[in-house]
């Protein structure tokens, strides 16, 4: 059987070649090229292998990490993408945009937009903390658009493939920061969001669509992370899409209105 080299190499013990797979993914991300997914029915990618590949990709990229993205927290869209659990990836400084910066989509493969709630950490959370203590680590909240991408054609992959590909993260457009008062933190799950392409209403959602709410997402992320990857004070966490992920194209302008305790808007223009 012919094996696509991009699908990964194996040594004599049939253990996955982490280095080769990581280099393939790093090259695809750098050049905005798509590749065959790493997993197949004959050669399944494990979660441990996927996160090992992702970690090595980050080393190869050598970028400054400013936070994490948590993906697939909206259970309603799991069947659409064929996944069954949340994942995480890194947010880097060169992929962090403000609302007045247009985003050049040429850098990304099959880009899509996701309206999200972003948390800014004032101190490091730990796995021993309950949700109230975790909320106490949050210094600010903000609206965000995560631009996600798929280096695998037609958004077809396993959850492990998505982890290896940096959690499908492209970039993050961060809106105005809001001080994280007790009322705001306890009201995040009830925040409604309305997503627009130009003047066209696309979809609506709610904070609770992401695992019950952003603080619940933070708790899940802390439980996912290895000792070497623990969150630090000063990092941000973008907590997952509150709607489906929608394809975007150059020349479009998208916006979202966040209600409830956030009461703010966010927009982004694509080139």
Detailed description of the structure:
Helix 1 (18-31) crosses helix 2. The chain has seven helices and 13 strands. Strands 1, 2, 3, 4, 5, 6, 7, 10 and 11 form a nine-stranded mixed beta sheet that branches. A four-stranded antiparallel beta sheet has the order 9-8-12-13, with no helix packed on it. It has helices at 18-31, 47-61, 78-81, 131-135, 159-164, 182-187, 214-224, and strands at 65-71, 87-92, 96-98, 112-121, 138-148, 169-174, 178-179, 192-197, 200-206, 236-238, 246-247, 253-258, 264-269. The relative contact order is 0.20. It is an alpha+beta fold. The longest helix is centred in the N-terminal third of the chain and has 15 residues, at 47-61. The N and C termini lie far apart (42 Å). Strand 8 (192-197) and strand 9 form a beta hairpin.
Brief characterization of the structure:
With 271 residues, the chain is α+β, with helices and mostly antiparallel strands. It has 7 helices and 13 strands. The strands form 2 sheets. Strands 1, 2, 3, 4, 5, 6, 7, 10 and 11 form a 9-stranded mixed sheet that branches. The protein has a 4-stranded antiparallel sheet with strand order 9-8-12-13, with no helix packed on it.
Helical segment tally?
7
The helical percent reads 10-25%
Envelope shape? globular
Radius of gyration: 18 Å
Task: Tell me which oligomeric state these chains represent.
Answer: single chain
Strand tally is 13
Give the SSE string.
HHEHEEEHEHEEHEEHEEEE
- Our estimate of the beta-strand percent is 25-35%
Largest sheet: 9 strands, mixed
What is the terminal separation in angstroms?
Answer: 42 Å
The low-confidence parts are 1-14
Name the structural class.
Answer: alpha+beta
Average pLDDT for all residues: 92
């Amino acid at each position: 059987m012919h094996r696509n080299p991009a699908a990964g190499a194996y040594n004599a013990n049939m253990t996955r070649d982490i280095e080769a797979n990581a280099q393939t993914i790093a090259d695809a991300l750098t050049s905005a090229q798509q590749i065959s997914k790493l997993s197949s029915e004959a050669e399944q990618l494990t979660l441990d292998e996927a996160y090992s590949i992702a970690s090595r990709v980050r080393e190869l990229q050598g970028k400054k990490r400013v936070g994490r993205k948590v993906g697939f927290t909206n259970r309603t869209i799991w069947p659409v993408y064929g996944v069954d659990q949340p994942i995480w990836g890194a947010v880097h400084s060169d992929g962090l945009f403000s609302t007045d910066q247009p985003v050049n989509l040429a850098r990304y493969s099959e880009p899509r937009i996701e309206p999200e709630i972003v948390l800014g950490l004032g101190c490091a959370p730990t796995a021993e903390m309950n949700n109230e203590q975790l909320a106490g680590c949050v210094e600010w909240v903000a609206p965000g658009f995560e631009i996600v991408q798929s280096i695998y054609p037609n958004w077809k992959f396993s959850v492990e493939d998505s982890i290896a590909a940096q959690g499908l993260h492209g970039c993050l457009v961060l809106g105005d920061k809001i001080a994280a008062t007790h009322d705001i933190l306890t009201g995040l799950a009830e925040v409604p969001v309305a997503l627009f392409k130009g003047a066209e209403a696309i979809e609506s959602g709610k904070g609770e669509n992401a695992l019950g709410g952003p603080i619940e997402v933070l708790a899940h992320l802390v439980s996912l992370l290895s000792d070497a990857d623990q969150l630090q004070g000063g990092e941000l966490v973008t907590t997952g899409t509150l709607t489906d992920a929608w394809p975007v194209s150059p020349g479009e302008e998208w916006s979202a209105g966040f209600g409830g305790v956030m009461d703010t808007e966010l927009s982004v223009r694509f080139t």
